[in-house]
């Protein structure tokens, strides 16, 4: 890699693909894909990224501890976390029986009443393990509340779920009846 850090590059790529592709003059298809070359060209217009290469982006994706991006057939996309106005279309999949969600205590009453909703994002983010839910929840509050989601039951009832990556699942929303706080 060049002198830039993989973490900084991941943040820039996430911003471009998840939140404001128009600032980079990128066109995303309905599944969120854009050519790697287009992304690299767009990043190179920024002073901090003049030396970035496709190989840098590919290495960042391949070695990232958190699987936030995917490269396939010369194209790249963010796997989840989009706040774009248009909806990224994902393929519905069967989730694990149980998933978890970490949240701030102030939101628990609304979740008990209304279920989990995507809020400013396109999808609700769910974790495959308690540790990941704890880490996500800690970004919202120093003492997050952990929720157990009966994903298998919800899917059987017709709630669509989508695979984000090995540790993250996505849903359009989860009704309150499938959610219980962990003790």
Automatic annotation (TrEMBL):
- Cite the Gene3D superfamilies for this sequence: 3.20.170.30, RNA 2'-phosphotransferase, Tpt1/KptA family, N-terminal domain
Arranged from A to Z, the UniProt key words for this protein are: NAD, Transferase
Give its E.C. classification number. Answer: 2.7.1.-
The record's comment on protein family reads:
Belongs to the KptA/TPT1 family.
Biological role stated in the UniProt entry: Removes the 2'-phosphate from RNA via an intermediate in which the phosphate is ADP-ribosylated by NAD followed by a presumed transesterification to release the RNA and generate ADP-ribose 1''-2''-cyclic phosphate (APPR>P). May function as an ADP-ribosylase.
Question: What PANTHER family has UniProt attached to this entry?
Answer: PUTATIVE PHOSPHOTRANSFERASE, TRNA 2'-PHOSPHOTRANSFERASE 1
Name of the protein this chain belongs to: Probable RNA 2'-phosphotransferase
Organism whose genome encodes this protein: Luteipulveratus flavus
């Amino acid at each position: 890699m060049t002198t830039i850090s993989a973490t900084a590059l991941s943040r820039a790529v996430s911003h471009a693909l998840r939140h404001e592709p128009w600032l980079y003059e990128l066109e995303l298809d309905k599944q969120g894909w854009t050519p790697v070359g287009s992304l690299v060209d767009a990043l190179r217009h920024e002073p901090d990224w003049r030396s970035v290469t496709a190989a840098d982006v590919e290495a960042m994706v391949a070695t990232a501890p958190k699987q936030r991006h995917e490269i396939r057939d010369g194209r790249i996309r963010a796997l989840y976390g989009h706040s774009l106005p248009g909806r990224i279309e994902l393929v519905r999949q069967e989730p694990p029986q149980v998933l978890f969600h970490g949240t701030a205590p102030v939101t628990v009453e609304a979740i008990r009443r209304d279920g989990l909703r995507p809020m400013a994002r396109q999808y609700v983010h769910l974790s495959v393990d308690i540790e990941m839910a704890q880490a996500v929840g800690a970004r919202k509050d120093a003492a997050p509340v952990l929720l157990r989601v009966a994903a298998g039951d919800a899917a059987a009832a017709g709630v669509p779920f989508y695979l984000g990556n090995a540790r993250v699942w996505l849903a359009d929303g989860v009704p309150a009846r499938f959610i219980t706080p962990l003790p």
